[in-house]
Amino acid sequence: MLRFALKGLAGRKFRASLTALAIVVGVAMISGTYVLTDTIDNGFNSIFQVSYKNADVVVSGKAAFDTNNNGNTVEPPTFPVSLLGQLRALPDVALAAGSVTSDNVKLVGKDGKVISTGGAPSLGFSVDPRYQIFNPTQLTTGAWPRGPDEIVIDGGTASSQGFKVGDTIGVQAVGPERHLRITGIAKLSGVSSIGGATFALFTERTAQQLFGKVGQLDFIRIQSKSGVDTPKLVSEIKPLLPSTATVRDAAAQAKQDKKQVGGFISFIRYALLAFGGVSLFVGAFVIANTLSITIAQRMREFATLRTLGASRRQVLWAVVVEAFVIGLFGSIVGLFLGLALAKLLNALLVTFGIDLPQAGTVFKGRTVVVSLLVGTLVTLVASIRPARRATRVPPIAAVREGSVLPPSRFAKWGPFTAAAILTGAIALVALGTLVGSLATGPRLLMIGVGVLLLFFGVSMNAARVVRPLAAVLGAPAETIGGAPGILARDNATRNPSRTASTASALMIGLALVTFVAIFAKGIRSEFESAVNQLFTADYAITATNTFTPIDATAGDSLPGKPGVKDVTPIRAGSGRYLGSNSDLTAVAPNMATGIHVDWTAGNGSVPRRLGNDGFFTNDDYAKSHHLRLGSRVNVEFPSGKKLELKLLGIYKEPSGGSPFANVTISTKLFDRENPRPRDLMVLINTPGGVSDSNTATLKKDVASFADAKVQTRDQFKANFEKPINSLLNLLFALLALSVIVSLVGIVNTLVLTVFERTREIGMLRAVGMTRRQVRMMIRYESIVTSLMGAALGIAVGTFLAVLVTHALSSQGIAFAFPVLQVVYFVLAAIVVGILAAVLPARRAARLNVLEALQYE
Length: 856
Fold this sequence. Notes:
Layout lengths: L1 H10 L1 H39 L5 E5 L17 E2 L1 H7 L4 E7 L1 E2 L3 E3 L13 E5 L10 E6 L7 E5 H7 L6 E5 L5 E11 L9 E5 L1 H8 L4 E2 L1 E6 L5 H8 L7 E5 H48 L1 H9 L4 H40 L13 H26 L23 H21 L5 H22 L4 H8 L1 H7 L1 H12 L1 H39 L4 E5 L6 E2 H5 L9 E12 L2 E8 L10 E4 L4 H4 L4 E5 H6 L7 E5 L5 E11 L11 E3 H7 L4 E8 L6 H10 L6 E5 H44 L1 H9 L4 H37 L11 H27 L3 H5 L3
Parallel strand pairs: 6-11, 8-10, 18-23, 20-22
Antiparallel strand pairs: 1-13, 1-14, 2-12, 3-13, 4-6, 5-9, 7-10, 8-11, 9-10, 15-24, 15-25, 16-24, 17-18, 17-21, 17-24, 19-22, 21-22
């Protein structure tokens, strides 16, 4: 039977290849994801390891708590430069060098605009040519900086922006933009690409002035004398350290730095794997449907085997072996295709602003094992039901024309099973989204299982709606196409189960696409409503990317400048309170001039009364933590300073959110505890309101701060939504993989049905149907099938979105149906149908009439 199965595959290479394509895309996604994320992970490892090369131990700033949740607004405390001299005096220290660093050093291009990093850090650090042993960078041209107005930049920035040694470049960190002369171009040792990040090197004194850290250091790299154990050196250093510093060996320090990005890499990995899983899930539908069709067409072949003595088990294993070979072949192709797909995925991420460092392609054994195992197992599981059907072929079918597979003894329970699965799926999803008392783990499990069962349930019940859907969706084809359109509609309803299964593969992808579109539309609509309610100022000053906080000196410089009436900043940072590390915001006493809030406890005087011991919060947070006016809350700052604050006000937060954290204090207190404060935004009123002249005046007022961007309320909304739209487009691009798999499924079905209807097509040609009409018939049938998938997918996606948005209504997400996008999805389904029909239609039209009439 093994030889029979292999010969059968060899004789049906085209069909087998089409079936394997369904698994290739999903496995390639899994393989490509692992290759890409492992490569990125290796890039970060290389960066952190080379950062502490030749150092045995590293002294660094010690934050009072982990602030990884908001790395853009918090940095560890510094320590005095005098510590370096004390450490150099230790008997076991051979070399020690200090450095000053910052992840917010903006470089300014020749056009006067900040060079975008796409969310990657814009690094700056000091170098000391006397201690090159610790320098993680290498000069590619020029010399190291030695004077107060000199800088070395990274090669990527120099290449992309057209800078060379001797040019002047703008730099902004703390305070207004400064212009420095480029003395050299450098690269990071051992790293092929630092992604979208930039870095700049300065003398120690220049870096301290630029970063607002005069007399301070961030790191001290230490090399021990020969024969000194690292633990011994660490124990000698610890007693000398202030409370704001800690000491680790170099490997531990690199690992600590890696924590800041490890979670992000894991998120990307699991997100991309999820899309690969969706593609494989769709592929399983395609494979099961394809095998079912081929088994039905090979009934006389299997019956002949039974007549010659083959047992049902042998027939079963023959089909399983075919599936195993197809799955293994598809998995192998997908595995190596993943290497190319990894580069495509990286290019896709870069296109959407996610450019991460890399240090050589990583192809781990785990990638090989997981890809081959998952792809092969999915194929085998998908083949079980068709293989069992093959065993039910009776031997008498070998001599009977037009025989059909006998129904299973469980067939009578099919409708009840399908209804039960669909009902159970709806119940699970509803309970998971609507029952508020469930813990997060059980809730996610119920939703995940419920969604999977929902897809199965809809697919199993879809055959019942094929005929009415075909009547509606096939009407335009009948009107436009005449006889070919009528035949196409009838062909789509000839085998409802087959059509439903084919449409279901497309249904899954379009259901997810529809859900994402509705979800994003709800977020945008609620956000716009919140901005309209809260934003009363004429203008907002933000970072050029709207999101990352800007140096507070930009806003502090505005009062008294031409065209400025009111200035009210909103500071951003982090703190630890009520048992968790959370965001922390701060406002000025005149907050009401730029932002309106509805107070449920307290009144408009709250911002003026915050002082050094007051805060306000939103109604949901106050309710969940049982806070009321006068409640006392301990707040810890990154420096370790702890203060007891009193609740002075509670406001009603709009469903679309607000710029405020759960605890908001005064700018006076915030600045006292944060040496380099930053603003999330600065709200401004101008005499006469928004006008072209006021806009021009404001831009001139902040011209010395290259990262400051002047925006009206409408511009603020549009810019804030850009990342949402980019993320939405990225999700659509990734979900397109599942649509590609479903396209393969439609091609498979049409190709196989062309084989099945060879004599019928020959008869149609014999009675006068032209080749063009044959192509039209196949094309219309494909479009009708695609539209069925679209109709089912849009309905399922809308149902899921209704439940999820209702469950998250308190989190600022409302149900909003994106009509225009759904129209695009329908048009895309039609395009999928047209593309899927190209090959089968050509094959059908080119059939030889006489040979087709004699085909068995």
